[in-house]
Write a structure and sequence with these properties.
This protein is an alpha+beta fold and about 180 residues long. It has helices spanning about 15-20, 25-30, 120-125, 165-170; strands at about 35-40, 45-55, 85-90, 90-100, 105-115, 115, 145, 155, 175-180.
Length: about 180
Amino acid sequence: MQFDSHPLNNKSRLTPDFFLRDVLLVAPDLLGNRLVRRFPDGTIKQFTITEVEAYRGEEDLACHASKGRTNRTEVMYRSGGHIYVYLIYGMHFMLNFVTEKEGIPQAVLIRGIDEIKGPGRVSKILSIDKRHNQTSLFESEELWVEDTGIVAGYFTDVRVGIDYAGDYWKNRPWRFIMKTGLE
C-alpha cells in the first residue's frame, strides 16, 4: 500500500500518550490497530495486531526487567513507544513495544498479526532484527502503529513459555487475543 504523505507525517500514527500508560491498558488497546512495515525495498505492508502479551516491570518475574537494569533491558526503562527487540534460542527475534513513563520498565510482546501466530513468526514476516532495537515508533520510517479506531473485542489467557517465573506469574491472564467472531 502506498501513502500520499511521508510516514512521519501520518496523522493516524499512534501518539506517545497511547504508550505512556500501564502495560495492562496498552496491551489490549493495541488489538485491532495496524502495524505498518516499510521494507528495505520500499514496499509498505500493513497488518492487524491480533495477539499481544504484557510484561509488567521489575516485580513481574517473567519480565526481563525483574533482574534490574542491564544493557539488554535498558530500552525498557525509556519512555513508552520505543521498540525492544531481543533474540531467544539463538534464532528468533521478539518484537516488543515499551510502555509507561521513563523509568518504569514495561513492554508488550507482539504475538500475532493477521493470520500469523507466534512472536518468532511475526518478526520473521516483518524482517525484524536487532537493528530495530531502541527505535522510536514515533520517528521510525520502517515500523509504526496506526490507529484504526477499532475497539476490538478480546479474551485473555495465560502467558506462554514462562514456567521459570513460578506459578503466580506464569498464570497471570496477561495474554490478550482479539476475538474473530468464531469464539
